[in-house]
Structures
1.
Amino acid sequence: MRAEAGKRIYSATDLVNYLGCTHATFNDLRQLVHPVVFPEDDEQAKLLQEKGIEHEKAYLARLRKEGRTVAEITSEGSLGDRVAATHKAMQAGADVVYQGALYGSPWHGFSDFLLRINGTASRLGDYAYDVADTKLARTAKPKHVIQLCVYADLLGAAQGVEPPQLHVVLGDGRMASLRTSNVRHYYGVARGRFETFVGTPPAASVAEPCGHCTFCRWSDTCTAEWEANDHLSLAASIHRSQMDKLRANGITTVRQLAMMPATARIPNLQADTLSRLRAQAALQIARRDTGKNQHEILPPSPGRGFERLPKPDPGDLFFDMEGDPLYEMGLEYLFGLVHDDGGQEKFTAFWAHMPRNIEFLYSRNRLNVAISRARCLSVAFASPRLLEVPCNTIEQMQLVNTLCWAKSYSDAYTASRGVI
Ligand code: SF4
């Protein structure tokens, strides 16, 4: 969000952030009055940005190659200039408007692409535009859809008809499309809540860790607050509901949790759960006070955790499958195998050198190496997505079938023996 000529202007990111955490919006509003300088993006964030721009340019090149006329809206000039240039390009009937600027007070947005659709009557004529954004992700996510809804809302006002579809051009080049009417109402309610919040913001707000923190530009600020206040979330493995129950009973810091008498009880919190949380907090406080790490060895619990694993055997193999989603077109088949080699752990790497080289992954010989050498247990770590690879040939189906068989076998085994 930003302030221009005394008026606030909001963006799709503001709405996405609000839906992730209202405290982020509270901070955003405060920052309009008390500006904050944020640290520079780290290397990972820069790499993601570069990859995002590459992906966007690749899609633009694809549209041009298909012979579509493209009107590119320059990023120079005021918002008003860019919006006017976008409307002009739409009126001229360009097949694609790249970096179109959209505005309808108090919202604005810059859609990656506006795609012309013929046969839909609009204020422009017998055609209209849909919105499309490029994303590196492999599947469309709700936050992408919310962003597109903001653009669709603004575009609908500009062309006099709601864009029929929202499109996400995914990192692997596929397009995920959604009917605007299927999410219109959800978006309307969300936008209304946001506008109410920013219209009458609360006088105070407290940061609570949540799933949005990983993506939030306020994470350094909030982390510093939590450390200064000895926030309960600093206790390892504590859950939100547990914090709520502790707070309701006057326990608001990790130190207070650590100092609770062993006989103390918290309503609706199991005694052994409280005991575990208290012991964990005590270890952390001891580390804080003495500078030395402390640990406590818990007694084995029959039938739980590592107790459910078979006894170690020299023939055990630990097989790992990794991927690099940022590699061009994605690289999914980076295998590693650890086995005992005369008393030493030996790591063997099997790396695919071609993206999407499923023959490598599903090679019967390599699977045979991974599975058949185990004398007692073979542990495989893998994404379930590996079982969902689209097959273009019968041969590929047969190869994938081998891994599916291993998964079915493993499922049947765990069902009969209990899940570890
Ligand atoms: S870091 Fe987490 S708690 Fe803080 S504003 Fe962001 S999402 Fe909210």
2.
Amino acid sequence: MKDYTMKDHTMKRLLAKPYQLIPLLLVLLLTACAAPPPPMATQSGNGQMTTDATAEKTPAMVDGELTVENVRANLSLPSDTGSVWMTISNGTDTDDTLIGAEIPGCGVVELHEMIMENSVMVMKQVEGGQIVIPAGETVELKQGGLHVMCINKEAPREVGSTVDLILYFANAGDISITAAPVVAPGEMTKP
Ligand SMILES: [Cu+2]
């Protein structure tokens, strides 16, 4: 496996190697994309897990629970990176924090955001490497914004297949997501 991390990979660094710019730009554009059907997992205080593959798109804020839904895995590109989006709703009265994730076939997983820096869209690890989910609020990980970053992807996943992953939260603990759909690459649009 390659020894390769993507911390703080800004466009400035990409520009230092112009021959890499176009393929990497494509990856950046395609790494954040489309949105098919959503599996849903919730975890309540007793650690019990329910999944509902027919969950609707609207965020479900469940009293006393942290809810993860609309998980989509953009892992189909023939590159060694990818990303995963989802909607996280914190129905508890305590802030929670997404501190990491495990995605089979991804050597390194980081929590990233896309921001404008000197009028260029750059992708970098979120401050502190964690995403806060404030009490009573919904946080979207989506195209052009926050995402779970898959680095050192072993192989592309087929569109239409599914992937299981585990999300690590500071308070809610581990939340297993089963059968998140692998989505087709698409164009980046404004979040
Ligand atoms: Cu990223």
